[in-house]
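[SOLVED] Need 3D model of a two-part complex

Original post:
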Amino acid sequence: MTIELLETHKVFKGEQRKYSHYSTVLDCDMVFSLYLPEASEKQPTSLIWWLSGLTCTDDNFSQKSGFQKAASDQEVAVVIPDTSPRGEDVPDEDRYDLGKGAGFYLNATQEPWAKHYQMYSYLTEELPEIVHQLIPDFSGKESIMGHSMGGHGALVLGLKEPQRFKAISAFAPILTPSEVPWGKEAFSAYLGTDKASWKEWDATYLIKQVEQAPPVFVTQGTNDQFYEEQLKEDIFLKAAEGKTVQYQAEPGHDHSYFTIATFIKKHIQFHINELNR
Amino acid sequence: MTIELLETHKVFKGEQRKYSHYSTVLDCDMVFSLYLPEASEKQPTSLIWWLSGLTCTDDNFSQKSGFQKAASDQEVAVVIPDTSPRGEDVPDEDRYDLGKGAGFYLNATQEPWAKHYQMYSYLTEELPEIVHQLIPDFSGKESIMGHSMGGHGALVLGLKEPQRFKAISAFAPILTPSEVPWGKEAFSAYLGTDKASWKEWDATYLIKQVEQAPPVFVTQGTNDQFYEEQLKEDIFLKAAEGKTVQYQAEPGHDHSYFTIATFIKKHIQFHINELNR
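Solution:
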């Protein structure tokens, strides 16, 4: 297994790195970004996963959110995977919400997607082993967050592996993918039209099932152009009754990285509180 | 004169806006970005100009530096012009360091550049009138900063108009353009080969000439790939003897926006100290 370091940039007291590797699960070359805080003598380093939204690569969050200030101050590592398998051999469609850049963090069962679109297995089986080894003095503690499609991904991974992830947070997540256009189109293509197969990839179903859910924190801008059609929270919040969910509507904020930049410090503080318990 | 608001995004307590307008000085349509802090009752709002480096548009600084946190906290407006004239009618070359994205903030005298490449007049005569009117309760106080080619631009504008600009700061600026490849190639093309005409666009010449220079603050990463060939400081610092210049080498930092993100708060604090005097 060869991991190649492509870039490293000092930012605040840590380093923003970019790596490439061949993924056997996805059967293609992949790139991911990793922020490593300055070595600390205070405590071992924990890891937050960030999952990005439609059209993104590992660059959007590393370049546009400014998360490194809070990660440096809190001495936490942050890994940013890509949003789908990549490369010329990987099936794609000429649209932004299916195919490359739109893997939805699930394991596809339908053709032509099933061979490469196995992002869930990639993120839960293959990539963790790689990333854990890159963190000096790793604490073993992890949590997960994301934006939009990546907010859906963070909830699905966090709720399917509640022992592994100490906290889940999301900006403008797709909370009910089985009920909204983005999710219905993607699930139909990747999983087929039998909706029974959709449930295990739907946070609203999962949060009802899981016995001990990690605490969840959601930020949603009230001026988000996708809110009404794709991101409504009522069905999810009803399903989440009895679980620890903090849903924060932020007046005037939209779907952009400017909203993430504004509230990322608060999200990282939420994760640190849970990781340090 | 028509100014069109293209975008507005809430970020921290203010708004990141993008405008377009027709520039009579440049004879083309131009775009600029403007951060407006939340309306304050404490004091009128001052304005910091940011000039970007080679290949950039108004987007790089607004999306990658995270400057909005400090600008919001300090309640200061920040305007980000483009780096050259734009459009199909504007001459260009198939290289990153001449033509579009590489206007060098001067007034060109040579063909084919002279008709459109008048960035200095644009930034000192036309754009200020537009921007000042967009800031509610403008204090009339301005300062200027920039990166690389834009650091050169900030120094040139600030030193040519020392009464107007209360402070100058720069990240990895081209301090001696007449002596380094980037500057020599651009000046030869835009100004001609008579080096006498280069002096008024060279910070090292200007800082020697100006009687009362605004205070200058420079941040230079020691791991900057362009440092040795393009960005050395010794000649400039010698020329600046007797002026207020703080030159800060930052170990391990490179030429990227990650360095800007790390130190932008410190730069904005420097500007605020001078603007509030």
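Edit: The CA atoms of residues 187 and 193 of chain A lie 8 Å apart.
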